[in-house]
Structure formats: C-alpha cells, structure tokens
Amino acid sequence: MSAGSSEAMNLLGRLGGVKGKAGGGRWLPMLLTLAFLAACPGPTLHPQIPAGTGAFVQEMPPLQLSIQADAWDGRPRSLPEYVLPFLILLRNTGKASVNITLADFLLLDDADRQYFPLAPTEVVTLLGGHGSAVGLSPSLGASGSSAGGTSVGVGLGILLGSSGTNTRDIIPQALPEGAIPPGADVRGFVYFLRPVPRYRALRLVVAPRELPDHPRLDFEFRRTGS
Fold it and tell me: What is the rounded CA–CA span in Å between residue 147 and residue 86?
C-alpha cells in the first residue's frame, strides 16, 4: 500500500467509517471501476443550514472553518463540470500554530461512497493542462459494515481535456497546506472528483490530524438541479 493510501486509511479509521481487524485481518478483494465523466452542467449544492446558501461556518477550537460550494470563479470556467471545488477558509483563533493537510478532508455521498482530495497538480493533469489531452487519476474508496467487514474499491477517473486548457488558477487558488500561525487565516479550494451520478447529498468531513481529541466536523450539502 502506498504512503498516500496509508494516510487515507488512517483518516478513515479516525472517522469511524471503516472497521478493520487488527493483526492483519482479512480484506475483501479490491474492485476496479472505470468512471467516464462527461462535460455537462453540474448540480448546485446548498448547505444544510437555515439560510440554505452562502458559507457554512463551524468551529473546532482553535480553528474556525468556513466552507462554500459553487464558489469557483477562476480559470478554467469549466472546472466544476469535472471537479467539485470547495472554498475553504480556516482561521486559527488559538495561541499555537496548527498544521493542515489535504489528508484532513474527506467527501462522502449519501451512499457512503468516499472521495479523497486531489492534489492541485492532479487537477491540472485531469483537465489537460500543459498540452496534455488525456488525464488519469486514481480514487480510493472504502466502506465498512455492521458485521465488521471492510470492502475497498479503487476507481480510475478519466477526463478528456483540450490541449492547452487554461488551468492557471487551479494551483494558486488551492488551499495551502502547512502551519496556520496564531491569529492568521488561510483561504483556498479543496478539489474532489465529481461523485458518481444520482447522489442527492454530500458530506464534507474535516478531521485535522493535529487535533485528534476533537470531534470531526461534518458539512452537509443537498443537491439540486441536474
């Protein structure tokens, strides 16, 4: 298992979404699925808060988190047709620095399928940036059952992008990883592959590894439109 996969499984363990067995427990065979994502208008996501629009704010002292869907206004404009970008604002209200990484985020749909963040460079490749016409990206998912078993799935998402797609805003506007000093805030997008069709709701889970004693935060969004 790669280092990235190990980090993903560690996060899943913290979230309680996967029930593994200590001492080399048996895993069900991996499933390989091939997902072709068509360039079509994506659905609109509304936060499950009274206002139903705008930023969704919660606190996990010393962090205050604000998350907004449908906020992309950079290049390429077509980004939300292929990738789900969530705008994240993190503010450190404490007296010590807090480190944040992409491994602290996880997206789940209403069927408990799990999607891990894409690195900004992966998104550029997916959209055919720098002259590439075809992008290929792995997506690892796992689900647990009440009986204690675990199934793991590996998917490959393929996107066909035109050569020379203008992707210049994807990396600069991504959420920066690393330490957030006391009193400071950071802002940027976290990118996920678009979920499989027919999902009705999504849950963005935030569980910073530097705050293991804090409960995770769930940001729930409902889908409207196509």
Answer: 34
9 three-class SS:
helix
Q: Which domain holds residue 121?
A: 54-224
State the number of CA atoms in the 13 A half-sphere of 5 facing the CB: 11
Domain presence at residue 159: yes
- Tell me, what DSSP letter sits at residue 75? S
If we measure between CA atoms, which residue out of 79, 12, 52, 39 comes closest to residue 222? 52
Q: pLDDT by residue (tens digit) across 164-215?
A: 578 999 999 999 999 999 999 999 999 999 998 889 999 999 999 988 888 8
Q: For residue 114, give both structure tokens.
A: 């799990």
Q: Is 194 domain-assigned?
A: yes
* Phi, psi of 125, deg, nearest 5: -65, -40
The one-character DSSP state at 29 is P
